[in-house]
Structure formats: structure tokens, C-alpha cells
Amino acid sequence: MIKAKKSLGQNFLIDKNILEKITNTTDIQDKIILEIGPGTGNLTSNILKKKPKKMYVIEKDNKLVIELENKFTNQISIINDDVLKIDETNLFNNKVKVFGNLPYNISTEILNKWIINLKDNFWFECLVLMFQKEVADRIIAKFNTSKYGRLSILCNWKLNVKKICDINPNSFYPKPKVDSSLLFFYPKKNFIKINNPYNLEKVTRVFFNQRRKMLKKPFNQLFNGDKRILDKLKIDLNLRPQNLSLDTYYRLAYEYENLRC
Ligand code: SAM
What we know:
The protein is of the alpha/beta class. The chain is built from ten helices and nine strands. It folds into two domains: about 5-185, Vaccinia Virus protein VP39 (Rossmann fold, 3-Layer(aba) Sandwich); about 195-260, rRNA adenine dimethylase, C-terminal domain (Helicase, Ruva Protein, domain 3). About 35% of the residues lie in helices and about 20% in strands. Strand 2, helix 2 and strand 3 form a beta-alpha-beta unit.
């Protein structure tokens, strides 16, 4: 058996029911599929059984790439690279469906990169991604809850997100120390236009810098106490960062961007 590399977040899925559940999340037949981190190819095999039109995989581990080439000759196109260094926006002629039991050490970095670089013509149809449960909980957290924060706000800006299921450590080899969750993301038809996503990052960074403090300080830092914006967005400065809805943050980022034009 392959020796798993901790540094590459290698926990291979071995539970047939979960593999089936992942591939039943969305239609695969005749679709173009991209898998991130195929590892030993367990999920890859299950996806191929559902007859995609074409399948690409991105795998960083050179040793696993040799295994994959032997196992799937001509059935998949292998990109032997670091997913964080690839610009997927120009890689495919058609929209792809993305699957990934992501390496947990860089899962939020991968998702952040995709969202920040997302143009209005999305390069993917949907994302079916596995995260550490604690991270998934933050992605889907609602406002007024303790897990709500920067990640929830960024991930829900252009994408709808649904939890499919939780997965326990016994479904993997080697067993991770934490539970996992499978999330399904698909593009929103309407979202607030923010030309430079770094403005949304900046606003959420400043607001959540002190998440237990009231909104007055971060608001004054970014908007110089502009009462017109407070009235327009109906913001009460005695509230705390977690009490503002997703939409309020997108509108704040929009206002912030306009102030700087
Ligand atoms: N998909 C397989 C499965 O479910 O059994 C393996 C999933 S394992 C959690 C994560 C995979 O991502 C590993 O194969 C690892 O080598 C690969 N990986 C880690 N970092 C990567 C990176 N920066 N770019 C591409 N692949 C990476």
C-alpha cells in the first residue's frame, strides 16, 4: 500500500458508500470533470464509471502521478502540478464540474483562490468538495452565530452552498483526527457586483479583526463615520461583526469600492 504523505494532506477515501454518495451529488454522464488531488484514484474510478465526456485531474505528488498513469492509461488527462499555481479560468473550453477530497491544509486557500479569481462567466458548473467539518461549518454558518465570519461571507458571495453530509474518520486511510463534510457549491444568478474582490476581503478583515467588539471602530476606520452609509445600509454601530447579514457585507464592500474610485 502507498505510504501517505502528511505534508500533502493525504487521507485516501476507502468507504464505497461515501464514494457513491459523492458521485451521486450531480450528473456526471457526458460532463467534463476536473478532480483535484486524485491520490490513489478511488474517487477517480467511481467518477469514470459514470461515463464523463472527459476527465482532468490535478495532482502534485509525482509518485502518485505515475500510479495514476498506469491505472488509468488514456482515460484521464493528468496535470502534474500544484493546484494553487494553476489558473483554471483559462484551462478549459467548456464549463467543468469539479470534485475534490481536498488536502485539508490548503482547502480554504484553494477555495479563496477560485472565488477571488472568478469572472462573471464561471469556469465551473458546480463544485463538490470535501472539507474538514470545522471549516465546512464556517463556510455555511449563518449570521448571528459564532462560526459566521470572513469565510462564510466570501464563499456565499457568488456561490450557493449546500451541505450534503458529514463523514467520519473511518471512511479514510489513514484516518484523519477530525470529521469531514461534503459541500456542494453552484453559481448564483444574481450577486452584488464588487469589481475588486480584495475590497470585500479588506472590509471583512477590518470588521472581523476584533469580532467581540462593537462595529463603531472598524466602521470609522473604513468609512470615516459616514452617516449616509449607515442610514442607507441600516447599520446599528452597537452591534457586533457577526450580527451583520451577508448582504450587508457585500453592500459595505460595494460602498467602500465606490469611495475609493
Ligand atoms: N482524492 C483522493 C481520495 O479521495 O482518496 C485523495 C485525497 S487526499 C485528501 C488529497 C490529495 O491532494 C492527495 O492526493 C495529495 O497528493 C493531493 N495534493 C495535495 N496538495 C496538492 C496541491 N497543492 N496540488 C494538487 N494536489 C495536491
